[in-house]
Amino acid sequence: MSSVLETRGLTMRFGGVTAVDTVDFNLQRKELRCLIGPNGAGKSTFFKCLTGQLKPSDGQVFIDGAETTGWDPHQVARLGVGIKTQVPSVMDGLSVRENIWLAANRTHGREQARHRAADAIERLDLGTIANSEVGRLSHGERQRVELGIVIAGEPWLILLDEPAAGMTAEEVDRMADIIVDLNREAAIIIVEHDMQFIRSIARKVTVFSQGRILMEDDVDAVMQDQQVRDVYLGKKA
Amino acid sequence: MVGGEFRKTLAVIVVAFVAMLIGPSLIDSYTLTVLIIYGMLALSLGLIWGYGGILCFGQAVFFGLGAYSYAIAATNIGESTVPFLLGIAIPFAFAFLLGAMMFYGRLSDVYLGVITLVVTLIFYKFVNSTAGPEYVIGNARLGGFNGIPGFQTLNVPGDPGAYIYDIDFYYFCGVALLVVYALVRWLLASPFGRVAVAIRENEQRVELMGYDVRFRKTVLFAVGGAIAGLSGTLFASWAEIVTPGMFSLAQSAEIIIWCIVGGLGTLVGPVVGAMALAYLKFLLGQQSLVDTTLVFGLILVLSVLFLPRGVVPTLGLLGRKRRGGGSSRRRAGRGRSGRGRRAMQEDAAKEGADV
To answer: B2-249: what CATH class?
Structure first.
């Protein structure tokens, strides 16, 4: 009923490889969902079909009731969808403040955007490096800058691809807090590998395997499941 | 920060204005005029390449198109105001269409280079082959390789008898360049310009923010086309003839060399590069001992090897070092190969004199 994101039979083929295979997915308003699965399970491809970075071979995507199949990324973003990519996608040659200001400036005037950017900087504790050039920052800081860019767009649906990748334990904790905080206003989908991280934030988890949804349940139930252990966790141990 | 930018722009304009007044006592104003025109042409590429990340191998197309539009319109109309405006509008419109085709088609940078190169060749070949009497637009014969001579040159608006020529034309071109420079600075400081720079830095991110990257690149490309068209229009009035050579590959290549040597990621760099190299070419043209093309090739190679950021950004950096304020810290993760020119632009853009 209050589904904000839905896919029906979503399929993505690359030549003979079917990376995403007839996936039916549903996300409720203000839900927090994690997508997990082994490498090559199709999580990121699925993710890119949602954001418009890839055009699905088959099936449909609906965001907030509107069909967005085959839309361009900027059109998807304009619906109020914030997207964080796997490798931090930031503007290296510009300052942190400029990066975040640019995101806010799309929907707000120059001054208003400045306030929004300042808010996001404070919220993510980027104050001390606000005027630094992003290219000179550490990986963890760049991840946070990208999140700042996402926040500044005031999204109601946030798609995060591996937000904790390559971060220190302390940074991961902080990221988890930020995500829980963001979840108060927005529905969030997270693609993640770090099980510790997922345990600390997730309620419902969707497990991908070979392009299909293997199971979808509470985080604890998923962790207990033997099949999931076999395809994913078992390999890791 | 914005205030500092404004002061810098003002300083550049004041210095350039003084230079413009002193110039004619050092070099004759006829030569200086064409140097200014070339400076404006380089500025057009410096804008779209250095700030927009769009490497156009065919900037000469818009230069030639501006000149031909002016010449054809001036032959037909006999008064220069409308032809002058057409000389800007037609290259703008053509660049807009060409840009829309390339950017909406999502062509990668390499193909963008190839297409602009081919468009240059097409224009060059076509205009060269229009010698026959059937190639007429109104009263203007296109004239093929002979070009179009004898059109009305620039006059005071409304009075076709009052030509703007010689030293007046020199000042007109100088002021035009300063006005264009100020407008481009303003454009770059505006949200449009800031997004354009962001697109150069990371196209994907800007798209994910919800900006329509294709449209913005198209507009920037068209603005570059309009500036190149204006310089072509002025060139037509200066030379009093337009020839297919304006569309040549050599002309396009020269614009790129001006930008590289002068310094990408700045506006003053390409202008200075163009003026210095064009003057050098003028001097070399008066002797027959060394081949001009050879010298230019050598300058390009040496500049890329020893001044990869270009002359103006390097000077800016040196100046800052001497004052002790600058830092030339290298960026983390710089080791990635294949960044080459792009990294240089970025460096130039942020470290170099942002002028």
So the answer is: mainly alpha
Between CA B318 and CA B220 the distance in angstroms is: 31
Taking each helix axis from N to C end, the angle separating B59-77 and B249-262, rounded to the nearest 10 degrees, works out to 120
With a cut of 50, say whether residue B332 has pLDDT above it: no
Nearest-CB residue to A77 (from B191, B210, B333): B210
What residues does CATH 3.40.50.300 cover in chain A? Answer: 3-80+155-236
In the numeric block, which tokens belong to residue B147? 């070009």
A133 vs B350: CB contact, 8 Å cut-off? yes
Q: How far is A232 from chain B (nearest CA, A)?
A: 31
| Pick among 3.40.50.10380, 3.30.420.360, 3.40.50.300, 3.30.70.120: CATH of A3-80+155-236 | 3.40.50.300
B225 contacts B34 by C-beta, under 8 angstroms:
no
Beta-sheet strands, E only, within B27-66: none
Interface of B with A (CB under 8 A): 191, 194-195, 197-198, 200-202, 204-213, 329, 331-333, 346, 349-350
| Chain B residue with the nearest C-alpha to that of A113 | B191
Q: Are B241 and B148 in contact (CB under 8 A)?
A: yes
pLDDT at position B337 over 50: no
pLDDT in tens, B102-158: 999 888 888 999 999 999 999 999 999 988 888 888 888 888 888 898 888 888 888
Angle at B87 between CA B84 and CA B88, to 5 degrees: 100
Q: Are A46 and A207 in contact (CB under 8 A)?
A: no
Interface of A with B in 148-177 (CB under 8 A): 149, 153
Q: Average pLDDT in the A228-236 region? A: 65
Length, in residues, of chain B: 355
Structure tokens at B203: 């196209």
Cα B61–chain centre separation: 11
pLDDT digits (tens, 9 = 90+) for B4-52: 788 888 988 999 899 888 888 888 889 999 999 999 999 999 999 999 9
- Domain edges within chain B: 2-249
Q: Which long-range contacts (CB under 8 A, 24 or more apart) does B163-167 make?
A: B164/B237, B166/B29, B166/B30, B167/B24, B167/B29
